């Protein structure tokens, strides 16, 4: 192996150590929240999922080399602002936290749908512009849905956004594992 590959492996090991420590802290916090109050646990899970969405999008764009340093910094700042806003919503009103979760889930669904089709079906790298358009389409559809839907059935639609990605991801993964990738799409 060349030196570049070894350096990359060393960075990954260091990241894996940090993520292991973070995972352990999260597990301990979840045990505390479960013993203290199940509502806190659910709130913590929603906030953690919102954070996961931002990290996953940033990592996928970085792995595809679709994001430069300036874009990455802007993306991280936006993620921090959104996460802090979600944490504030957790203490003010859980309805706002769930709205934030539904909106970010729709944006994540748009991004992951683009990523699954581009990476898994077409075997191409992600592009920053296309990814941002996919995220904005997801966010826009969620915001329009929030504005037009009566409050009593709004949670049903936001749940659909949150779960639709899992269905699309599962179908494409099964297809890719069963048939392989189709380079002609």
UniProtKB/TrEMBL annotation:
Residue ranges spanning the membrane: these are: 18-35, 41-61, 73-92, 98-117, 129-147, 153-172
Q: Which UniProt keywords apply?
A: Membrane, Monooxygenase, Oxidoreductase, Transmembrane, Transmembrane helix
Under Gene Ontology molecular function, one entry of this record is: monooxygenase activity
The protein's name: Beta-carotene 15,15'-monooxygenase
